[in-house]
Amino acid sequence: MLEAQKGFGRQRRYREQKLAFLAIRLAAGLSLGVMAAIIIYIVVNGVPALSWAFLTEFPRDNMSAGGIFPAIVGTVLLAVGALLTALPLGFGAAIYLAEYARPGPLVTAIRLGVANLAGVPSVVFGLFGLSLFVTTLGFGRSLLSGSLTLGLLILPTVTAAAEEALRQTPASFREAALALGANRWQAIRQVVLPAALPGMLTGAILALGRAAGETAPIVFTASAAYTLLLPDSIYREVMALPTHILNLATNSVHIEATRPQQFGSALVLLVLVLGLSTFAIVVRAKLRRGRQW
Amino acid sequence: MTDESHPPAARDRGTLLKPKLSPTEKGARFFFLVCAISALGQMLLIMVFLFTEAGRLFVSLDGEKGVSLGEFFLSQDWYPTYPSPSYGALALVAGSLSVTLLSILLAGPLGVGLAIYLSSMAGRRSREWLKPAIELLASIPSVVLGFVGMVAIAPFLQNALGLPSGLNILNASLFLAVMATPTVASLGEDALSAVPQSVQDASYALGATHWETIWKVILPASLSGLSTAVILGLGRALGETIVVLMVAGGAAQIPLSLFDSARPLTSTLAAEMGETAIGSAHYHALFALGAVLFVLTLAFNLLAHYLGKYWRRKA
Question: What pLDDT, on a 0 to 100 scale, did the predictor assign at position A220?
Fold first, then answer.
């Protein structure tokens, strides 16, 4: 029989395909399954620890009772501070790169800087924050130092997302504005920015979600194991959820006794971070679908 | 709004093509340039601070002899708090590399598998919710992963395998793999989806099966992007701190088996920086570790960049 009549070993080839696809499905299922299992594990063990008091009270009895209110407040304040740091700089840099920059050595250098910053480990940002903000500038371990460190950490992501959003605004928008006699800045401010801003903001919120869950950059720049009061100035140390979990799970006096607190805090952090990210992803999807251009 | 950018004088001077910029226009442009340059400045500033703080370990200060570069890189004795301290980073570097390489052995195939599934096998519907789901999974805080490793996987490993402790490089690499898989998958998916449809159509037209098209056409064509994805995943695992701090065990030794405890660079930094006096030799030694970590991740990033370029040129 001719090779062609046997379909070039068709059966064998389809058997191969079946096996390969099975392996790929297993790999995909396994990786998604493991991550889902981790979330479910935290939810199942964390929910019993949750109560109104847990969310609104200060910790008591060596952290084994009471709530995590100051840690929640600290994490939110750090996140807001990070956003205030990263937004002006990141958006400014993105506007320059997308609207003004012409290819050249300077722009190449800036892009290289942004790309490599994104790969710098967060603990190195922590060291940098310790050396620059805490020590050299004398801000001490504080809300200010932590916010600045986290802000710098998310700066490359915020910049990249904002530039992407600006680039998706059609050139015809700018041309129309310029043709009507607007100058460059007027065109950017009144036409390009309003169109690109929602996309820029969702990118920033996505970056922020990740920053809110970061531990390493705030361990030595901002966080205290315990504070008696909520911070009354930006020069105060704050409690934060990630470091609170870390402390209770590795350093506390009663590691076993504080287990419910640990699960509860992990759940609250997870909800906060995934909630923020989900919000940004949903808004982004809506924007993409509803876009007129 | 009055238009200031094209004053009549410009026409008279014959500079119509290059209108004089108004102060606001100039100011805005200058402001954005400063923002952009600050990103570059930040990178330089990080390097300056990291390397000056690290450098002080190696020079003599206040009559104390500095640590030699040879000792720092070749000794495995990390005893920073002993009366006669020694600062050898070898065991810590070995700890970092071992958990990172192990984790990428898992995250590489799993991430690429997930990427193939997303780009070539999943239907449009499931793709539409799987992609954001993976993005979401990438943002699970590392402290939560480390916590699960401590309270769930460590006791399990300890009991199931009869080990003295479940906090070891196996446990740490498992969770680093969980962190790195979404990165590899989403970057890999971008690479696979970038292969032109016409190339795939040509493969089908020649009678290839779906799998043969993936294996012999799509994968080779996207090798540059895939290798970049895996190396960036590697970089992410290498820089991850809290997971290894919580589950790698923390013994400063060169790990020889899967069940040995290790103390990667990152966890050493996180564990010891809070305890040490600012400006002490220990403090500078920790910055030196940070500098090593920085150089290693930078090397991975540049490798990813150039490998991508190299494959693209070959293709």
Answer: 86
0.90 exceeded by the pTM? no
CA distances in angstroms from A247 to A83, A243, A251, B127, B246, listed in the order given? 25, 6, 5, 39, 10
- Selection from A114, A204, A93 nearest residue A156 by Cα: A114
pLDDT 10s digits, B113-152:
999 999 988 888 888 889 888 988 888 999 999 999 999 9
Number of Cβ atoms within 10 Å of the Cβ of B168: 26
The domain that holds B135 is classified in CATH as 1.10.3720.10
Check residue A8 and report its DSSP letter: T
Query: Does residue A59 share a domain with residue A26?
Result: no
Distance CA A157, CA A122 (A): 13
CA distance A104 to A89: 21
The DSSP secondary-structure symbol of A238 reads B
* DSSP state, residue A98: I
Whether residue A242 is found in the same domain as residue A115 = yes
CA separation for the pair B67, B195 (Å, rounded): 52
Cβ-Cβ pairs closer than 8 A, A with B, add up to: 276
CA distance A23 to chain B (A): 8
Contacts with A242 from chain B: Cβ below 8 Å: 141, 143, 242
Total residue length of chain B: 315
Rg (CA), chain B: 26
Q: Phi and psi dihedrals of A65, rounded to 5?
A: -140, 175
Report yes or no on B9 lying in a domain.
no
The set of residues, in sequence order, having a beta carbon less than 8 Å from that of B140 and lying 6+ positions away, is A35, A38, A39, A213, A270, A273, A274
∠ CA B118-B124-B130, rounded to 5°: 50
Q: Where are the beta strands (DSSP E) in chain B?
A: 78-79, 86-87
Q: Domain of residue A141: give its range.
A: 52-290
At residue A65 the predicted structure's pLDDT band, cuts being 50, 70 and 90, is confident
Among candidate residues A30, A253, A245, the one with its CA nearest the CA of residue B144:
A245
- Cα A39 from Cα A43, distance rounded (Å): 6
User: Nearest to residue A94, comparing CAs of A75, A110, A118?
Assistant: A110
Asked if residues A238 and A144 have their Cβ atoms less than 8 Å apart, the reply is no
For residue A210, the chain B residues in CB contact (below 8 A) are: 139
For residue B275, what are the domain limits? 92-314
Q: Is residue A88 part of a domain?
A: yes
Q: Looking at the structure, tell me whether residues A39 and A66 fall in a common domain.
A: no
Which residues in chain A are contacts of B132 at CB distance < 8 A? 281, 285
**Domains contained in chain A, number:** 2
Radius of gyration of chain A (CA): 25
Q: Are A35 and A103 members of one domain?
A: no
Cα–Cα distance, B219 to A20 (Å, whole number)? 14
Nearest 5°: phi and psi at B221?
-70, -25
| pLDDT above 50 (res B14) | no
Is A172 found in the same domain as A41?
Answer: no
- Residue B3 binned pLDDT confidence (cut-offs 50, 70, 90): very low
Partner B contacted by A17 (CB < 8 A) = yes
Residue B35 to residue A101, Cβ atoms within 8 A: no
The number of folded domains in chain B is 2
Query: Which residue on chain A is closest to B24 by alpha carbon?
Result: A185
